[in-house]
Amino acid sequence: MQKERRVSPQTKKEDEVLDLALRPQSFSQYIGQEKIKKNISIIIEAAKKRKEACIEHILFYGGSGLGKTTLSYIVAKEMGSGIRVIAGPSIKKAGDLAAILTNLREGDVLFIDEIHRMNRVCEEMIYPAMEEFKLNLIIGNGPMARTMELKVPRFTLIGATTRLAFLSSPLRSRFGGTFRVENYKKNEIEEIIKRSSSLLDIKIKNDAVKLIASCSRFNPRVANRLLKRVRDFSEVEGNKTVSRKDAQEALSFLDIDEMGLESGDRKILQTLEEKFSGGPAGLHSLSIASSEEKETIIDIYEPYLVQIGFIKRTPRGRVITEKAKKHLKTIK
Ligand code: ADE
Questions:
Q1: What is the DSSP string of 205-244?
Q2: Which atom of ligand 1 is nearest to the CA of 70?
Q3: Is 205 part of the annotated catalytic residue set?
Q4: CATH architecture assigned to 263-331
């Protein structure tokens, strides 16, 4: 069974409630992603000036927890439109997609998360809907089959994906704007933690904010989750204000080190160092030796370990860096 991870950027049930309470409602409340905010604000303003019901279709790509969903809610709000949110894998049949599209209202945003996991048949059906706001449905089968054209309301599709390369090029080319959500800077994460603390009525010292930020993998979802855990810890200790010591103790209790690594991350590094003499090791071998699934290594562990320069990906496999070896020594 998978051990629960505090620093995984993927959504957990508890995050859904937390995300909702903390989600910024406008671009002015949203911290970070400056380029995206600026670009999209211009797109929205121009569409409003032209009195158009919707804007061009938009694609967001980048890691989990970096704000793709939040940005989409804000786009809908700033346009004064409704939003329908669905997960790509839940669109399994042509009928599913037809029902979703025909139930939209004029000008609505349709947000499809994990759009790369949408069924291929549905993906092809969505092209004419994106371009001409119509659907071609095939009724019946065999020689009696016929197509029926169905009009759908004008809408804006916002697609989100963590895997841009998995998106077919015909789909990709139908988006008017493609934006990469970037990792946040440390000062932005600190700002987010301060904003969240104020919304959750948490009194917190500046040095505690800094410590949580440095363990948050530059990811707002992880930062907010850690903030909540640290707050719980501080409350149990009977403290009214979260101090750096509270944060330190809580993070150490959660087994999160000062680089934001958990035991799972360290296991990958230790496996590389001890079982492969530092590497290179292929994904398959690393997966077997560390007892972690390949997808988990690729989606969860590796992006951050590569980002902080702890693992290098070479044509012959993964290699541990000197920086990572030093880090491992400090925590042994
Ligand atoms: N909460 C989560 N992400 C945020 C962001 N980018 N700005 C403000 N608050 C947030």
A1: -HHHHHHHHHTTTT-HHHHHHHHHHHHHHHHHTT-SEE-H
A2: 3
A3: no
A4: Orthogonal Bundle (1.10)
